[in-house]
Structures are given as structure tokens and as C-alpha cells.
Amino acid sequence: MTARFVAGRIGFYTLIAVLLAFFTIPLLWLASAPFTSDPTYEVAVPDFTWENFQAVVEHPYALPSLYNSLVLSAGTAVLVVAMAALAAYALSRVRLPGRDALLYALLLLSSIITGTAAMVPLFQLAVELNLIDSHFGLILILTGGLLPAAIFMLKDFMDSTPKSYEESARVFGASPLQIVRHVVVPLVRPGLATIGVWAVANVWGNFLMPYLLLSDVEKQPAAVITYTLYTEGGQANLRMLSTFGLLYSVPVVLMYLFVSKKYGFRFHGGIKR
């Protein structure tokens, strides 16, 4: 064992330790600060007080904002999954000239034209359609932003579905909608779950669009309300921020654990084995 090899191993493990600390320390702070009477930016052993949670409960907009986030995320996920499934199935089964080019163009445009770039026209469109301060309007806009990538991802799952199953159902007189509902959807259920989780995670952490289109503070989601948890002097209210941040993270973690346990996220060619 040479000195160069030993130095390389030490450097490797030092890098791994630094990376682990970079990701672990913020999580430890988020887990301990809400239970500390006077939290600071340092990770400390908590004294297990519930006063911070009581302060969040008494905040007039904290818990309602979590409900607003749930409404926006669930509504957008349902629309994205339903519309992307129908579009991906049609694109997978119907041969259209330039189909693949259309898919790549949609994905490319959705990646290039971000929410920031389209902020002004989207705001003007929402004003013209009277969709300002409307959860439904925001859900439609968020759905439009996520649909191209969702269709692109879901088409791979549709392509991997054996067409012989659909042909057998068609022989027995099943209509196209019955084939989609009773044959295709059960086969691509892991893909639908993936798109649903992806859509919820995108909307749950989205700050820009809700901040732009929802001026009524009672309708704003948690991502926007977090921005307001500062003292009058502009300093971060660590008691509120840490506790609200923990509550804000719990639904997404529970959703991931539930879907991961149910579907496993072990995909092989679009179909779970």
C-alpha cells in the first residue's frame, strides 16, 4: 500500500464526509429546531417544547396555507395525470407524421420557456380571463406548464404496454374508453403514480406562480406564506420558520413513503416487475 494510495483514500472519505454533512446538517436542524425554545442556526439538542407548534397553530395564515397547497397540488396532479395519460396513449397508438419531432419540440419548449420567462404573458392572460386570485385559474396554468414533460415521460410507459391485451379486449367488443380504463390504466399504474408524485412535488414547492397570481393572502399556499415569516426588522423568525418548515415537509415525505411502498419505483421498461 503506497503513500499515494493512502492519501487518495483519505481524500475520498473526507469528500464523502463533507457531502454527507452538507445534506445531513440542515435535516438535523429541521428536526431539532422546532422542539427548541430559542432555536438558532446551530444544531442543538432540543428541550422538547411545543410552544413553537402552538405559535404556528395560532398564526392566522399558516395552517390555511397548507390546505391551499394541498388543493393546488392535488388539483394539478389529477389534471396532469388524466390529460397526459390520454395524450400519451393517443400519441403511442396513432401514427402521425412528425409525431416524435412534436414530442421533442414540446419537451424542449417547456424546458426553455420557464415560468420566469412566461411570467408577463401568463399574468396578462389570467387578467383577461378573470383568473387572478383563483385556485382554479392557477391550477390550469400550472397544469399547462407540466403537461409537455408529463406526456413525454408517460409515452414510454404506454409504448411498453403489450398491444395484444388491447386487441383481445377489442375482439370481445370493448370500446376504446373501456380498453383505456380496464386494460391500459392498470398496466401503466406505476407510470401514473410517478407522474402524480412528480406533479405534486413541483406544485408543492412552486413559489413564483402563486406569488404572482394570488394576491389574496388567504388563498396563498405554504411556499408563499413561508416568505412572510420574518420579523418586522426583516430577520428570520426561526421559531416559526423551523416549525412551519417541518410541517410543510411532512406531507411530501408521507406521500413519497406511501407511493414507494405501494409501487416500489422499480420500473423496467415502463412496467413494474
Question: Please, could you describe this protein's structure?
Answer:
The protein has 273 residues and is an all-alpha fold. It is 70% helix and 1% strand. The chain has twelve helices and two strands. Strand 1 (267-268) and strand 2 form a beta hairpin. The model is unreliable at 267-273 (pLDDT under 50).
Briefly say what this structure is.
This protein has helices spanning 3-32, 51-58, 62-93, 99-112, 119-128, 135-159, 163-171, 176-187, 189-204, 208-213, 222-225, 238-263, and strands spanning 267-268, 271-272.
Q: Please tally the β strands and state the result.
A: 2
Strand order across the biggest sheet? 1-2
Poorly predicted runs are 267-273
What portion of residues is helical? over 70%
Q: How would you sum up the major sheet?
A: 2 strands, antiparallel
Strand content: under 5%
Please give the radius of gyration in angstroms.
Answer: 23 Å
Silhouette: globular
Number of helices: 12
Mean pLDDT: 85
For the record, give the distance between the C-alpha atoms at the N and C termini, rounded to a whole number: 44 Å
Order of helices and strands: HHHHHHHHHHHHEE
Query: Structural class per helix/strand content?
Result: mainly alpha
